[in-house]
Design brief:
Blueprint lengths: L7 H9 L1 H5 L8 E4 L14 H6 L2 E3 L2 E4 L7 E6 L16 E5 L12 E3 L3 E3 L3 H8 L5 H15 L9 H14 L1 E4 L6 E4 L2
Parallel strand pairs: 5-6
Antiparallel strand pairs: 1-2, 1-7, 3-4, 4-5, 8-9
Amino acid sequence: MNEIDTSVEYVLMSQRATELQEIWNPQDGDFFTTTSSYCGGCNTNRMCKDCARMTNKYVVSGRYDYHKSIGGTHWFFFGHACVRGYGNFADSTASYVFTKDGKSGIYDRFTCSSQEEMVWLPRQDQLQEISWNGLSNQEKIRRFIEYLDIEENYSIHNDSLESLWLSLYMKEKHNKKWNRISNINEWEEIG
C-alpha cells in the first residue's frame, strides 16, 4: 500500500476542495475518510481540526456493480475495530459499503453510507493526472518546477507532496489558494 498524507491539514484541504470531491470516481485503492463530527459542535460538511484528527482513514478495497434497483455500484471498505478518536487505520475484518446515494437493497443504513459522507484523500499520482491529464511525465515535471518557482514568491507552506499537488490543482483548475490561518482553513479565490 502506498503511503499517503493523512494529516489533519490534508484532510481539511481535501474536504474543503469541493470541486475535487465532486469529480471523485471511487476506485480500488483510493484513500478516504468520513465526514464525521465527534465534537458535536462542527458541521459534517466542514469538520473542525479535532474531528479531522479523530476520523479514521480507509481504503476502497473492492467494488461490485449491482443492478440499479438495489443501489448500483457498491464500494467496500473495512474497519470495525479501529480506535475511534485516534485516527488509526482500519485493522479489522468488519465490512462496510458506500454507494452514490447511500441506498442499498442489500445492506442496512448502519453499514451503508453515501459517497457524499466520504472525503477522498487523493494520492500524488491521482492529483498529477487530474491536474494535467494527457501530458507526458516530462512535461508534468517541467510545469511542476515552474509552479514551484512561481509559488516560492508567495511563501507556500505545504507539509507533503500531496498537499503541494492539491494546491497546484486548485490553483490551475479553480484559481484558488489554501488559507491555512487557524480560524480560516479554507480555499479562497486568487485575487
